[in-house]
Structures are given as structure tokens and as C-alpha cells.
Design a protein that fits this description.
With about 300 residues, this protein is mainly alpha-helical. About 75% of the residues lie in helices and about 0% in strands.
Length: about 300
């Protein structure tokens, strides 16, 4: 099951890694981040509802878990808004790199608050991945502390989202049911915000509509795969495998958008891959004692 969780979280990260590419296209057509988020969550919610109806799944959750779903949905929306706001102050690449420090926050929350214990190999993997993310940062353009703070805050809110998904048992809920309920809450919040900001006063051409549909599809794949993957390996390990997302974005930017490829980014890729390889092969002692990667 652990290998299955690794695979699902890796595929989720790759799906999300294509999001910046299509988001850029849609934003160039005049749609702001609130409207983009609204349609992404709306598409995910509609797909989840169709799957629930087609497979005749019960659309119900434990009433005790509903407050956690509300809180988790809030942090997911806030993460998107904070990360987008940071783009106004610092370059997109730097903001994204700072955001992807969230595995550090996940590990710290699990270690300090939930008293989880991790092996030396897991800590080494975390350090390798964190240094790898730092290598992605262009320090020559890192000159605005407000933007840096907002980007780091987006990483913290996303870490909280992942921990709640794991520790409050939300990852064990039917993924389509959880996605549908969460998307209803998220679209309501963004609809209110979007109407207040006039975010829905825009026109899209065929390319913009196509890109928006692709964005919704990527959200479907990324979100559902992450929820199921977290169920198998916990939020700590899932956060590390989500680092495939910036790697995918880097390759897409280089191949499709013709973005320059820095040696620091190449080194970052090597360190992240190295860190992930470290946790793919648990130690013999871990196998014998059957210690879980992240305690429930």
C-alpha cells in the first residue's frame, strides 16, 4: 500500500505541475485568480457529483467530520489566494519556490504538535528536498520581504490543509464525496469574493476556454489522487512526493514556454530526486518492525 500511496501522490504532483502553464494562458485572456479558482473548484465539484451519481455512492459524511471539512476547505482557498497575491511582489518562480517549503511545515507540525517520530532517513530526505527547493530561488530578484512573507505563509496554510486531511481522518472519506462537499464550500466562498471584486466580468476566446477546461481536469486528477495517496502514506510523506509538482512546472516552462534553465534549478532537481529516493526504500529495521511512516 505504501508504494501505491507514493505513486498516487507523485501523479497528483505531476498533475498540479501543469497548472501554472494553463493558468498563465487563462490569465492572459483577462481572468483573475479568484475567477480561475472558482471555475477550477466548480469543475472538480461537478465531476465528483457525476461520479457519485453514476456509481450510486452515498453522499454522506460523519457529522463530527463536517467542521474539519469546512476548516480544510478554508485553508485550501486561502493557500491559493496567498500564493497568487505573492506574485504581485516577487517573481512567480521565487514565490512558488518559497511556497514549496511546506513539507518542512508539515514535518514540524507532525513532530511538535502530534508528537510523531521520524527516522533519520526521513529527516535527511526532508533536508535534501528543502535545500533542493532553495536552489530554485533566484536570489538576485528576492528583494521584497512582504512578497516573501506571503509566499511562505501560503506554504504554511497548505501544510495545515494536508495535516488536517490526514489527522482528522478526511483522507479516509470517499474521495468523490469529500471533493464534492469541499468544492461546494470553496465555490460559495469564491463566488461571494468574486462578485464583490467584479472577477466575473470577462470574456474568453476558444484558447482561454480550452485552457480553463484543462485546468479543471488537472484539478480533478491532482486533488483526488492526493486525497487517496495521503490515506496510504500520511501527510508527511505525501508532502515530500508533492515536490514532483515544481519539477514538472520547471520542465514545462523550459520545454513549452522556453524559460531559461538555471544550474541552480538543475541542482535542486537532483537533490529533490535524491531525497525522494531515500524514502522509497525503507530501512531493514523499519521493515522488520513494520513501523508506519506517519502515525495515525
Amino acid at each position: 500500500m505504501r508504494q501505491k500511496g507514493f505513486l498516487l501522490c507523485g501523479l497528483s504532483a505531476i498533475s498540479f505541475g501543469f497548472v501554472p502553464l494553463f493558468t498563465k494562458v487563462v490569465m492572459q485572456e483577462g481572468m483573475d485568480v479568484v475567477a480561475i479558482g472558482f471555475f477550477r473548484f466548480l469543475g472538480l465539484g461537478l465531476f465528483s457529483l457525476l461520479m457519485i451519481l453514476a456509481q450510486k455512492r452515498p453522499l454522506s459524511v460523519d457529522a463530527k467530520q463536517f467542521p474539519a471539512i469546512v476548516v480544510d476547505s478554508f485553508f485550501q482557498v486561502v493557500t491559493m489566494l496567498l500564493l497568487s497575491a505573492s506574485y504581485l511582489f516577487i517573481p512567480t518562480g521565487n514565490a512558488t519556490s518559497l511556497h514549496f517549503m511546506y513539507p518542512v511545515f508539515v514535518f514540524l507540525i507532525l513532530y511538535l504538535y502530534y508528537k510523531n517520530r521520524f527516522s533519520k532517513m526521513q529527516w535527511i530526505a526532508l533536508i535534501c528536498c528543502a535545500i533542493g527547493i532553495v536552489c530554485f530561488i533566484d536570489f538576485d530578484n528576492m528583494n521584497n520581504w512582504i512578497g516573501m512573507g506571503i509566499a511562505i505563509a501560503s506554504g504554511l496554510t497548505y501544510a495545515i490543509y494536508m495535516v488536517i486531511l490526514d489527522k482528522q481522518g478526511l483522507a479516509k472519506i470517499d474521495p468523490f464525496v469529500l471533493s464534492f462537499i469541499g468544492c461546494v464550500l470553496e465555490t460559495i466562498f469564491l463566488a461571494v469574493l468574486g462578485l464583490a471584486m467584479g472577477s466575473f466580468q470577462m470574456t474568453l476566446n476558444a484558447m482561454g476556454i480550452f485552457s480553463l477546461i484543462i485546468l479543471a481536469g488537472l484539478s480533478v486528477c491532482g486533488t483526488l489522487l492526493l486525497q487517496v495517496g495521503t490515506r496510504y502514506i500520511g501527510s508527511g510523506m505525501a508532502s515530500l512526493f508533492c515536490l514532483f509538482e515544481p519539477l514538472t512546472s520547471l520542465v514545462c516552462g523550459w520545454l513549452i514556454l522556453k524559460d531559461p534553465l538555471r544550474w541552480g534549478s538543475v541542482l535542486g532537481c537532483v537533490l529533490i530526486f535524491g531525497g525522494i529516493l531515500l524514502i522509497l526504500k525503507p530501512s531493514k529495521r523499519t521493515k522488520e518492525k513494520k513501523i508506519k511512516w506517519v502515525k495515525q
